[in-house]
Amino acid sequence: MKKILVASLALFATASVATAETVRLGTEGAYMPWNGLDENNEVVGFEREVGDALCAIAGLDCEWVINDWDSIIPNLVAGNYDAIIAGMSITAERDEVIDFTAEYYPPSPSLYVAMAGGSASGVIAAQTNTIQAGYVAESGGDLIEFSTPEETIAAVRSGEADAVLADGDYLMPIVEEAGGELAVVGDPVYIGGGVGMGVRETDGDLKAAMNAAIEQMKSDGSLNALITKWFSADSAVY
User: CA nearest 45: which of 25, 61, 59?
Assistant: First the structure.
């Protein structure tokens, strides 16, 4: 991506950035309500609305790129898109490879979900390269990893795994729709920081522009409105 040209510090304060090239936003498209795909293969969900709003505030022309989760960081580094907006928690390990904007979603708990009557022990399913997979592995648990979140749920239903550990905001709608087949078990787990956009360490201008836009959305209440729209009225907000 060509360097984003900034006319003045005042423009940063209002997140108005001039750019000669489209900024590409990479997302998974498989993790509702964070991000998903509609029948036309268009990105939908919380992060679609947040990303579009941030680009509008920053004066950027943005387009969406779909990428599998397990290669989402390598493809950012390789230049296949310019930012990740995919429910990615800010962690020290990831920050060694890429940079992060300010968080646009507060830290939230991960939950264990099992078949009704099950427990948070035994074989635990988690999506690969997630903070949940890392947590299970580091705690010495019996971990089985899958490339997509849907596969982790399927593993619990088939008996291949005893429970899944994932973001509570992703799991709760699934539990509610399961009509008693699935249940939250064990205690909530707090791992990782809030969710931010991932950018290359060399793209300081883009990071600054998005940080200014995120701050504006926090200040004017529009970010809180999107959080409660897509998640819950009880969700943590700013």
Answer: 25
Question: Under CATH, which architecture does the 110-189 domain have?
Answer: 3-Layer(aba) Sandwich (3.40)
Reference 13, options 219, 200, 199, 201; nearest CA is 219
Model pTM? Answer: 0.84
Structure token pair of residue 35: 């991000």
Apex 35 CA angle, 31 and 36, nearest 5: 80
Amino acid at 183: A
CATH superfamily of 9-107+193-230: Periplasmic binding protein-like II (3.40.190.10)
Higher pLDDT, 19 or 124: 124
The alpha carbon torsion through 142, 97, 210, 134 (nearest 10 deg) reads 10
Each residue's pLDDT tens digit, 129-149: 999 999 999 999 999 999 999
Instruction: Tell me, yes or no, if the two domains 9-107+193-230 and 110-189 fold the same way.
Output: yes
The C-alpha atoms of residue 194 and residue 136 are separated, in whole angstroms, by 19
How long is the chain?
238
